[in-house]
Structure formats: structure tokens, C-alpha cells
Amino acid sequence: MQNKINYHHIEILDQQLKPNNNLASFAYTNALLRLLAHIDYPIVHFWTLEDTLILGLADQRLPYLSDALNELSQQQYHYFIRNSGGLAVISNAGILNVSLFLPQVNAKITIDESYQEMTDLINAAFPELDINAFEIEHSYCPGKFDLSVNGQKIGGMSQRRNQNGVVIMLYLSVSGDQSARGKLVADFYAHGLKQAENKWNFPDVWPQTMVDLDDLLNQPLSVSAAKTRILAVLKRQDITTGTLDLQQKMQQPEFQTFLDYETSQMQQRQDKLKGSV
Prior knowledge:
Layout: E1 9-17, H1 24-35, E2 43-49, E3 52-55, H2 65-74, E4 78-81, E5 89-91, E6 95-103, H3 111-125, E7 132-133, E8 147-149, E9 152-162, E10 165-173, H4 178-193, H5 213-217, H6 223-236, E11 240-242, H7 244-250, H8 253-276
């Protein structure tokens, strides 16, 4: 990490979410972003979610969205729509989601600087690999700051910000059948577009453009081990980590108000999605 802000301490939140609580993933993200107004340290938020396709706002424009969602259900996949732009991504047992919250205490952090912070963190966690950041065409949810090795994508990033700070959100393909993930997303768009003109630039997903970290490392790698590697980077940089202060802040009525509001906003988006199909 480049330490645009002088970090001495980072609080850690680790959540293993179930599909019946899938809205909590982004409800917590948004509530924690609000919390940056009241803290002066970064937060690393790890979360996992089982067998779920997370839609971006742009996916609502699919001309045959109901057919695409029905296909997901037939594949026994859950789905919900997040509160940000972009396109669909998968979360399942081999995917680690990492969110890095940076309070803007000493200096404003640009969009590119924010992405670079996460890129540096993941590079330091996996020094055996030459990880680069640029768009991988034909991946799902392609973007300027896709993380890749040898031209194959291992993760993608997005960010949200307010006047108090920024959160950089990464999904990282650790293990599992990445080819099957790619096929699921490719099928989702195929059913959602059919023969319609693709004037919304939905991706033509090629599963072979993406790969898992354990395949690149040629050794088993669990999500837990990936988290351990990331935390070890902080330790090597003499950054202390903890959970107590953040847990105390999250128990305060103000945070609960944030969380209730953001959960309600997420639910409204799901209701709108159901109404549109």
C-alpha cells in the first residue's frame, strides 16, 4: 500500500453471509462509508456469499431480463441488484470480497490513487505473481482496473465515495471453477439479450479470460488463506489491526440508523427489480 494517508491502525470486519441475508453485503458497505465521518482509521471489510449473481444497475436494461433471471434460478443461483453501476459479478465459495475504506483525514484521494491502494495491497499479498491493472476484454464486469496475471483476470474493482472518504471494492477469484462462473454469466447475458441489438455494451463473456489464484500459484489456496496473506501485508508494514473499536462503533444507535436506512434502500431496489420483470 502506498499510504496516501499515514496509516497506523486498521480495523477489520469479516462476514460470512448467507443468500437469505445477501443484501447485508452492500447495506454494510454503504453504512460503513457513512461511518467514515466519525473515525480516523481505515477499515478492511472481508465478506463472502454463496452462489449468488450480483447484478449492476446497468443489467436492468437487458431486454429479456426476466428470462435471464429465470435461467439463474434454474441453475440454483440466487441474485440481487447492488446500488451501483457496472455489470454482473459472481460470488460463491471461492470468491473473496474485499472492501478497503479510506477516511479522507489528511488529503483527498483521487479515483486512480484509490484503485492503486487496493492494487498495491493485493500485489504485496501475492508477490509470486505479476499482477497488473487494466481492462480485460471479454471478462465479466470489465473495467479499467481489472486485476490480471498474464492477461487473465483474477478480480475486478469498483469504488464509491462521499465527502468523508472512499471505499474500494474488490472481488477476488481465489479458487473454485472459474470457467463455470464465466459460463454462468455468459449464459445470463445470452438469455437476457437473445437476438436483440447490444446497444448497451453488455459484455461478450469468454470464460477463458478469467482464472483463479490457486491455479496461478499451482497450489491449493483457501479464501481464509487469502485473507491471512492480506493481513500479513499490514503486519509487515507495522500497521496494527483490531476489531474492537469498529465493533463498538457499529453497536451505537447512529450506525444502526445508517444500516437500517441502507438496508431499506437495498430492499427498495430489489422490489423495483421484481416490478420490472
